[in-house]
């Protein structure tokens, strides 16, 4: 009898646990709300400021900033944080919708978004302080981090630099196989462009002062949610530290700022937190385009490896053959974007000449090629070795320019010559204390150990390269350039999926048909958010390569471009 009662009690508890979220609350894209529901949401936001709850949320974010940003808990914290915001709104107006902002639809021309009108969240700030004086939050006075007006200072004056396009977001989701890879990709990549695009309060740790914060992080949370839905049997339980420097993490870790809340309690929003996201159409439209590209690529690569854009990269297309000749710079393989070299050099790895900077770019490309097929690995290894030698020889000789000798002791301790430490360890025996000056010939004997060892120069300069392989596919730009044209019928499908009036794209100026480049973010942003500027620069370069690839396809029209031109030309045509 006792056993039967225990069984029934356990069954009742299991039933309660499984039914704690029978009807998850849908979170829609804000532009899909009726004018009435949008008005409810905006009125609740005003009351949230008046009752002090918005200040509470901002203070919580400020107090926990160092434990959130640049750590694996980044996505998990903000999921709980946005849900805290939703709970506070529902205490004001039970059942009020809590939307997100799919800024990828506005990626091509963010300033044209409806969200910056008075019917939504208002526009740019005015005056030296950037005080918001339009829209539903006009003349808001904030108390965190100190008394001030709600501020916005768009990063291009009266305009906003482009965001990551939906193609880059879907590509990242398809490429990442681990939670940490996705979290670091979002945090070092697309996340910051929105914060700094709006700027003002949004560029600070008290960014939650601006309601844009919660709509933006609703989108960030949706990126994670959509990634989880791709493999729901495993990803709703997945939490790891890949691509982060943190020690081992666990789902039993506490969420910063929320005592008693464990990370694992936030991994599946469909249960404990009890909500789901409603797609804006951007993701579905992007998948339609990727399916067409996959179809064409499959025909051209019959019998060979190919990269699936709609279904995830199963095997990246092989890199073109490379010459291993040491003669001359490998200009044909040099990345067009020099941000990679600039970021690595700015981190304190010496001050080489322009020629050395070019050679560093070559090294970056060569190392990237090592992820290709076996044939390319052999030639890449030989070319890499030659470029390593050339780079370091030039750097060393440049350091001794003007008749100066190279002081090993100073080089070992100097911040701007940190790269020499690897060479010194390879040349000078342990315990060596003599401060005599060594010649370049002595130092160059340590090239092999200093460059190719496990703590070698290349590994130090290019830290984060392995992360990029997991976040965005390499060589995608070249793959896309091999694709034929996109038929008008496919473009019309994109208009239909987004529920927008069709536009004759042949009448749209070419500049508006193209996906624009994403602006690089300033180094202070990465420093303040515990991020890796070198890693971010690599992501930035890869997104530009991807954009070039899509723009090279005749007839290709991004969902972000479709959204923009439909608003601008839809009624006129």
Automatic annotation (TrEMBL):
GO molecular function per UniProt: metal ion binding; oxidoreductase activity
Domain Tyrosinase copper-binding: 210-221
Protein name according to UniProt: Tyrosinase copper-binding domain-containing protein
Annotated SUPFAM superfamilies: Di-copper centre-containing domain (SSF48056)
Keywords: Copper, Metal-binding, Signal
Stored Gene3D superfamilies: Di-copper center containing domain from catechol oxidase
InterPro entries tied to this protein: Di-copper_centre_dom_sf (IPR008922), Tyrosinase/Hemocyanin (IPR050316), Tyrosinase_Cu-bd (IPR002227)
Positions with biased composition (Low complexity): 316-333
Signal peptide start and end residues: 1-19
């Amino acid at each position: 009898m006792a056993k039967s009662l225990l069984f029934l009690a356990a069954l009742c508890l299991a039933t309660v646990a499984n039914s704690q979220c029978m009807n998850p609350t849908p979170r829609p894209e804000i532009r899909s709300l009726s004018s009435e529901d949008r008005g409810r949401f905006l009125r609740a936001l005003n009351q949230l400021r008046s009752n002090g709850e918005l200040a509470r949320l901002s203070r919580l974010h400020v107090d926990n900033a160092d434990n959130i940003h640049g750590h694996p808990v980044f996505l998990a914290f903000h999921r709980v944080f946005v849900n805290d915001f939703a709970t506070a709104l529902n205490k004001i107006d039970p059942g009020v919708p809590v939307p997100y902002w799919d800024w990828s639809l506005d990626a091509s021309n963010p300033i044209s978004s409806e969200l910056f009108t008075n019917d939504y969240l208002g526009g740019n700030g005015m005056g030296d302080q950037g005080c918001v004086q339009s829209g539903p939050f006009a003349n808001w006075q904030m108390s965190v981090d100190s008394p001030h007006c709600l501020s916005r200072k768009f990063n291009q004056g009266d305009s906003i630099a482009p965001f990551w396009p939906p193609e880059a977001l879907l590509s990242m989701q398809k490429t990442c196989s681990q939670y940490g890879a996705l979290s670091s990709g979002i945090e070092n990549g697309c996340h910051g462009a929105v914060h700094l695009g709006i700027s003002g309060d949004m560029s600070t740790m008290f960014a939650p002062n601006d309601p844009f914060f919660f709509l933006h992080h609703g989108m960030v949370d949706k990126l994670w949610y959509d990634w989880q839905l791709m493999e729901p049997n495993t990803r709703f339980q997945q939490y790891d530290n890949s691509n982060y420097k943190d020690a081992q993490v666990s789902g039993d870790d506490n969420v910063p700022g929320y005592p008693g809340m464990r990370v694992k309690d936030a991994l599946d929003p469909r249960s404990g937190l009890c909500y789901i996201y409603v797609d804006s159409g951007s993701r579905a439209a992007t998948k339609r385009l990727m399916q067409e590209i996959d179809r064409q690529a499959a025909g051209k690569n019959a019998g060979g490896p190919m990269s699936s854009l709609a279904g995830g990269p199963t095997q990246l297309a092989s890199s073109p053959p490379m010459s291993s000749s040491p003669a001359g710079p490998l200009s044909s393989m040099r990345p067009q974007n020099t941000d990679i070299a600039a970021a690595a050099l700015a981190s304190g790895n010496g001050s080489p000449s322009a020629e050395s900077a070019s050679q560093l770019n070559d090294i970056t490309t060569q190392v990237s090629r090592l992820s290709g097929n076996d044939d390319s690995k052999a030639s890449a290894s030989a070319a890499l070795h030659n470029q390593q030698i050339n780079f370091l020889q030039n750097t060393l000789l440049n350091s001794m320019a003007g008749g100066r000798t190279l002081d090993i002791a100073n080089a070992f301790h100097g911040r701007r010559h940190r790269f020499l430490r690897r060479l010194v360890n390879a040349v000078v025996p342990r315990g060596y204390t003599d401060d005599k000056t060594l010649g370049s010939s002595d130092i160059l004997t340590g090239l092999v150990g200093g460059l190719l060892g496990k703590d070698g120069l290349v590994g130090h300069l290019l830290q984060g390269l392995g992360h990029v392989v997991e976040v965005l596919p390499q060589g995608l730009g070249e793959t896309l350039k091999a694709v034929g044209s996109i038929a008008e019928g496919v473009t019309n499908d994109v208009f239909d999926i987004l529920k927008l009036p069709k536009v004759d794209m042949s009448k749209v100026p070419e500049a508006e048909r193209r996906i624009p480049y994403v602006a690089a973010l300033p180094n202070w942003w990465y420093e303040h958010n515990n991020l890796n500027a070198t890693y971010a620069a690599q992501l930035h370069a890869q997104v530009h390569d991807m954009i070039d690839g899509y723009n090279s396809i005749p007839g290709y029209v991004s969902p972000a471009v479709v959204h923009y031109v439909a608003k601008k030309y839809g009624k006129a045509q």
